[in-house]
Amino acid sequence: MHRQSLISLTLAAAMGFAGQAAADFSPADHLITVITPPPSNAFYKAEADAARAKATELGYRVKTLDHQDDPDVQLRLIQTALGEGSSAIILDNAGSDASVAAVRRAKDANVPVFLIDREVNANGVATAQIVSNNSQCATSVAEFFAEQVGYQGNYVELLGRTSDTNAHVRSEGFHRVLDQIPTMTMVAQQSANWDQTQGYNVMQSILQGNPDIVGVLAGNDTMALGAAAALRNAGANDVIVVGIDGNPDVIRQIANDGTIKATGLQQATRMAEMAVEQTDAYLRSGTTQLPEKQSVDCVLVSKENVEDVLPGGFGMR
């Protein structure tokens, strides 16, 4: 037999085998484990629910877990997922540095990990890192904020969890805009760890020494809600608050002329759905044909377009 004919027969056999493998693929034979921070935060609940719904729609078995924002708990959950035979893991991680080892553990077991919302400080350990364009998000929020306060006055910034890359990127985005305005001064900057209660307590403390502030930039909507409550209780109803996420409670405040005037809506539901769609592609073919790092733009939501937000928040019509 000629060499060319042999090659042709070999290629044909390989293509036939691949086609047969694709035809025999059954999503019901595969478990996708979704691990997020606590669902008490509406953002994380939205992404977990969206991932579960999309995976179920595609025919996969799904398990959702909560790592409590604790890297040690996260590692145990990933080990459990591997032990249960998960075919893929979708993860909103518990820290950009602390999570690298856990994600690598899955990679070493040949189980792909699709990161959503938070990235890790390493390339090549996750199959995909699908995150909000936090720089674009923070910049658009800061531009709106500056306009609302008339480009002047003292303001406060509430930072997110310091171990989270997103907290730093968002803060840098805020200051890329505001540091260029000499008539605006940041009089306090403090972490409230993405938490509403801490946002309330930190805001109360800051107000005691800075009663003349014109506004508050919060690194996420949960902290913004806490800050807004503290301002209302102090009678500081003219202070403008902005956040980032697209939390339903914040959307209601924006719609009803509350203290919070805008948010940079992260498309959490879309990112979760993208992760499931790419998981499906990878399990079927061994590739997503997409880059590892993927960025999804936020949408600035204010009174002007608040009616376009999906009823559950974290997405646009």
UniProtKB/TrEMBL annotation:
It comes from the Bacteria. SUPFAM superfamilies: Periplasmic binding protein-like I. GO terms for molecular function: carbohydrate binding. Transmembrane segments: none annotated. InterPro entries: Peripla_BP_I (IPR028082), SBP_2_dom (IPR025997). The keyword Glycosyltransferase does not apply. Residues 1-23 form the signal peptide. Keywords: Signal. Coiled coil: none annotated. GO terms for cellular component: cell envelope. CDD domains: PBP1_TmRBP-like (cd19967). GO terms for biological process: transmembrane transport. Residues 32-284 form the Periplasmic binding protein domain. It is found in: Cell envelope. Belongs to the bacterial solute-binding protein 2 family. This is D-ribose ABC transporter substrate-binding protein. It comes from Halotalea alkalilenta. The lineage of its organism: Bacteria, Pseudomonadati, Pseudomonadota, Gammaproteobacteria, Oceanospirillales.
